Structure formats: structure tokens, C-alpha cells
Amino acid sequence: MTTAIAPAEGAPASQVKRPVIERGVLAWLRRNLFRTPFDAALTVILVAVGGSLLAQFLEWSIAQADWTVITTNFRILMQGTYPAEQGHRLGLSVVLITLLAGVSWGIWGKLFRATAFAFVGGVLIFVLVPLAAESLADSPRGTFGGYVSGQLAPLFSLLRDPVLLLVGCLLIGYGLGRFAKQIDRKRAGRYTLIAWFISIPICFVLVRGFSDADGILPVVPTSRWGGLLLTFMLAFVAIVACFPLGILLALGRMSGGTRKLTFKAPPRWWLNPLQWLRALSIWWRNLGNYPIIKLLCIIYIEFLRGVPLVTVFFTANLIVPLALGDNSIDAVVRAMVALTLFEAAYIAEIVRGGLQALPPGQLEAAKALGLSPVQATLFITLPQALRIAIPPLVGQFITMFKDTSLVAIIGLTELLGVSRAVLAQSEFIGRHRELYVFVAIVYFVFSYGMSYAARQLERSGSGAIRKIG
Amino acid sequence: MTKQDDPIIIVRDVHKWYGDFHALRGISMEVSRGEVVVICGPSGSGKSTFIRTINRLEEHDRGEIIVNGIRLTNDVRNIAAIRSEIGMVFQQFNLFPHLTVLQNITLAPIWVRKRPRREAERIAYELLERVKIPEQAHKYPGQLSGGQQQRVAIARALAMQPKIMLFDEPTSALDPEMIKEVLDVMRELARSGLTMIVVTHEMGFAREVADRIVFFDHGEIVEENTPDGFFQAPKTERAKQFLAKVLSH
User: Fold this and answer.
1) Which position has the higher pLDDT, B230 or A324?
2) Coarse DSSP helix, strand, coil percentages of chain A, rounded to the nearest 5 percent
3) What is d(CA A207, CA A221) in angstroms, rounded to the nearest whole number?
4) Shortest CA gap A278–chain B (Å)
5) Residue A364: closest C-alpha in chain B
6) Contact B142/A465, CB-based, under 8 Å?
7) How far, in Å, CA of A450 to CA of A31, rounded?
8) Which sign, positive or negative, has the C-alpha torsion A379, A382, A385, A387?
9) Whole-prediction pTM
């Protein structure tokens, strides 16, 4: 490469030009895909294999697949047997969450041009496909026209209004967030966080309801939650609950100082209840220094990491009711608790990794300033550790979202369970490919969304903060 | 100002082991109010370990340490009381990278001393003025040079209004150009009458500022001397060898 550059000897450094880097598609291809003969061979083979797979898939999805299994069962896939006349409650929850997500995005994130184009493009497809379908209405089945009019159009017109609504909410929220940020960034952030904390129980109440059948919000029993709704509820509750539990477990596992408080008993202290309280508080505070808590945390974490999630679900589903002697605890609640307890062990290890990645000087500086162990954890070590741990934490949350599909095994009808139920009907037998492709796409869309949001979150901390020391 | 008969730090026969390694072997010394003590010696001689026992970042295994009349024991309340009297500056600065300079300085006054935020911030600005970087208050540590970071670290320690300052090789991680700006701040502190214990390899600084030089080797105090005495006529052979090495390069 150096041969292309004119020799710069003798010229003053200020006049030496930076060598020109070739630009353009061809130069890019040469640099990245055909740099060596091996690269070239690899590129050709991969393109050939990938292209043929893609072609086969497209051929199948246009000529052979029958996607009506999705359009017919769309409602049950999304919300299970949740009463249709109460569906607006789900819609309201989703709108609320989407708005808040948009506001958060406006405050902490950035709307990249590519993302904006993707949104507009997505919306256009949902509007245009049903329109185009009308002109192709006479095309026979098996051709592309027939595929668009007979297969795609019903799905897309079904999805059009919800997608428009959600993207609209997201963008309105984004605008609101940007606006609030301009006025007072700090307060906007604080209020948004508070709004999240309030809206989570609100959504829960909206979905579940509290009054009897004639009231404003009649209770919908969890046995009627299903499909994507149940997937969401399981994942959401488990993520929200296992996070603090995991942090506590991590702190417990890393605890174990040797410092102890002594109870200096005044004479006849046992006559004074205030002194009892003092003794009790000293005993309680010393407990944190005892290795027993550390030991319990280690046993908990290692035990739950050592068993498959399925066994935990089976235990929750079969052994717990057996031990209690009745079925008093709801099956969905049992699944939520099982998932929470299981995932907390993994979260604990991730948080511990973050804590251990901190230079020891951070804790020493906090101690030297006189901060108490609790203050040092809350203000110094935990915030830094969590920031380090964002990528693996999000990875675990995505895993958790997908792990909810295992509850299908214990008979709950979340997205995957409902799909199996649909496939068991005689009219849809053999349509498992179409349905599972659809389910995979749904899982992918939400997992990728989480991953994307997390990358925005990582970026929101400026580069200066990420550099430690 | 200096009252020689009123020691603020008393250390008696302190020993420390790391496993089988005997790191401190019977250290005894007293530091008076307002005194500036410089500790020097080869690396691995126990200097840092020793000053870290004074605010209990390291636990000593034998002997006693009394700071400002409080005996260091396992009782967390004593440790907290002693730590609030002692400021510490580290070799690696150890600023909190997720907090701004101002937040770094005000955190402990607000949460440990329970000062109102406004007052803590006023003191922080004064201290930043004193260490000559008032314009950096809202930056993050990662945006500052090493010398500026170390001066923030000094301001952070001073914000607790400590009676004693410990410096653990404060200039060893700095580029040569930045050493002076940190030493200038430390000179000014020494003149103001603060009690200081400084572990350093900056012999010029030691000679100029110290009231007393303590030479450590192999976990023991080999020599205690005045700066002039130490640099012109060291009493021990080990100190002579050490000085020959550090002064000749």
C-alpha cells in the first residue's frame, strides 16, 4: 500500500498530506470481502449458500405456505382467551407503556435517522400492502400477486391500525420527551422515572381488574390470560422482581467483613426496653458481617444455577401444590415466582461480576471519606457496577423473555403454548411452519427492541463516565 | 502553633502480616498537631501499608493506634469517627468516575457530615479555588488531566475538614509536568498548619516542607531525622545507600 504514496522526505511535516483512502462501493467490497483469495472464496461460498436458503424460504412462503393460520387466530395468539369485550383494557395498557417508552427515548436516547426511516418504512408497508392487494385481487394462488392479495394483505390490514397507533404513540412520546428535556432535563428525567413506577401497577390493575362482573373493571382470572399477553406479563413481572433480588443476593455473596459492633451494656440494661432495642439493632447490624448470610447466598445462587429452569417450573407446578395440600396459589403466579427466583441467581452473578470489575480504590476512597458501607454501596460501587453490567444484564433479560416459553410445558398458554393449542385444531394441522415462523418473528422483534434500547442506554452515559480511574 | 507535647497520632508497636509475610515489624511513632512528616524508603518497605493502617484501610494485627484521642478498634463507630478526622489522597486518585467534580467533593460532606447541599457546594467551590481549578466543577474526572484529578482528590479530602491528611505517593502516577502543580498545592497546605503524613519519592519536596523525615525499610523505621540531618548526614548505612540511589539519577 505504501508504494502509492509519494515519498515525503524533506518536506516540512505541516505540508505532508494524509494518504487518500479509496471510497465507494467497489473499494469497500475489495477491502472487506475480497481482500485475500481466501476471503474471496469464503464470500462466494457464503453468498451462494445464504442466497439459496433465502430463495427457498421465499419460494416456500409465497407458493406453498398458507398464512391464514395467523390471521384467523391472531387475537388468540395475542391475548389468549382474554374476554374480547375487555380488550380495550389491554390496548390502553399498551398505549400507556408505549407513550412512556417514547418519552424516555426522547429524554435519554437519540432518534437516529436510520431508525426514523425504518419506522416510516414500516408504517408505509402496513398501509400500502392492503392497498396494493386490491389491484392484485384476481391473481391466482401460488403467484406473487396471489400471495400479496390472499396472504399478506389480511395480515397487514389486521396489523395496520395497531401498528399506526403504537408508532404514533412512540413518536408523540418522543416529541414530548424532547420538549420536556429542553425545559428542564433533570426534572423531566425524574418525573418520567416516577411515571414508570406508577404506570407499572396501573397496567397490572388494568389487565387484571378488581371489581366483580358488573363493576368498572371486572376481574379477568389469570387462567384467561394467554398468548403474547401472558408472555409479557410473565417476563415483565419476573424482570422487575428478580432485579432487586439479584442485587441483594450479589451484595450478600460479597459481604462478610470482620468488623463488629459491641453492645456496651449499661447497668441493669435488661430493665429498659430502649436498651433491648439497641441490643437488637446491634445484633441485626452485626448479622451482615457474619459469613452465614454469605453462605446462604452462595448456596442459593449455586443451587439454582445448577438446575434446569424446567425443573424449577415443575417444582412450582407440581410439588408446591402438593406440599400446600391445595391449589390455592394461582398457576400463573407460581410460574412468575419460579421464574423470578431462578433468574435472580443469574442476575446476582452478573451484578457480582460488575462489582468485582471495579478497581478496589473506589471502595477505599469511599471508606476513607467516612461513608458507611451502605452509603458506599448505594452511591459509589453499585451505580458503577450496574453500568458495567448493562450488556450482560440485558442479555439475561432477553434470555428471560424467551425462557417464558418454557411454561408451555406446565400447561400455561403463553405465545408458544397457544400456538401448540392452535396447531392441535384439525383445520390447522400441518401449519406448524407458518405459525412457528410467525412466533419466532414476534420473539425477535421484542428481543431486538430490548437490545436496541439497552444500546441507547449505554450510549447515554457519556464516554467520560465510562472511563474508570 | 506546633505543640510538640500534644501528639494527634500515637502509634505503638504496630505489626502487620500478610499471610506469612511480616509487612510491619513494630512501628512506633508520634505525630504532633501541625507537623508534616515525610515517609520515604524503598518500595515494599511498608510505607503505604503503614499510613493505610492509620485510617483502617488496613487492619493491624498487634499494637495500638490512637488518633485524636480515639483508639482504633474493631468497633465501627470508632473507625467512622477516626475516618472523619482523616483525609486521604491516593496514588491512583480514586475519584468517582460517575460523579462530577462537584459531586465528588460534596458527597461526603452532605451524607457523612450532614451539611446542607448549598453550604457543601459553597465550600467545594472555595476548595476548587484553593487548588486552582474552579472552572472544572461540572466536568467528570475522566475529562481532566492527571494533575487536575489529583488536585480534585485533595479538594475532596479537604471538604471533610479533616485534622490530618494522609498522602500515599500522590505524585507517583503523574506525568513529570504535572507533579509541580500538585506539590504546590501540598506546600500551601503544609504552610497552613495542617497535620500531614506524606509518603513520597519527591526528595526536593521532602527537604523543603517536612518537619521530620522517617525512613522505612523492611517494615521497620530505620531512621528518624530532621530534613537537613537526613539529607546531609544520614545516621544509618541503609539510609545512605538509599539516598545515594535516589539522589544520583
Assistant:
1) B230
2) 75, 0, 20
3) 10
4) 14
5) B57
6) yes
7) 33
8) negative
9) 0.82
Read off the pLDDT of residues A326-336 as tens digits, 9 standing for 90 and up: 767 788 999 99
B114 part of contact set with chain A, CB < 8 Å: no
Distances (CA, A) of B166 to A157, B100, B113, B195: 72, 23, 20, 9
CB contact under 8 A, A258 and B74: yes
Compare B12 and A457 and report the one with higher pLDDT: B12
Residue of chain B with shortest Cα separation from A362: B94
DSSP element (H, E) containing B198: strand B195-199
B196 close to B36: Cβ distance less than 8 angstroms: yes
Mean pLDDT of chain A: 85
Percentage of chain A surpassing pLDDT 70? 93
B88 interfacial to chain A (CB closer than 8 Å): yes
Does the pLDDT value for residue A465 go beyond 50? no
Using an 8 Å CB-CB cutoff, list chain A residues near B96: 362, 365-366, 379-380, 384
Q: Please give the Cα distance from B86 to B78 (Å, whole number).
A: 13
pLDDT digits (tens, 9 = 90+) for A252-267: 888 765 555 667 777 8
B90 touches chain A (CB under 8 A): yes
Return d(Cα B109, Cα B97) in angstroms, integer.
18
CA distance B166 to B89: 6
Rounded-to-integer distance, Cα B108 and Cα B104, Å: 8
Within a 10 A sphere around the Cβ of A448, how many other Cβ atoms? 11
Nearest Cα residue to B41 out of B233, B232, B198: B198
What the block records as the C-alpha cell of A336 is 412468575
pLDDT digits (tens, 9 = 90+) for A350-388: 999 999 999 999 999 999 999 988 999 999 999 999 988
pLDDT(A315) > 80:
yes
Which residue in B76, B115, B164 has the most chain A C-beta atoms within 10 A of its own C-beta, making it the best mutation to test that interface? B76
ipTM of the complex: 0.92
Residue given cell 546531609 in the structure block: B232
Among A369, A378, A390, pick the best mutation site for testing chain B contact (most B Cβ within 10 A): A369
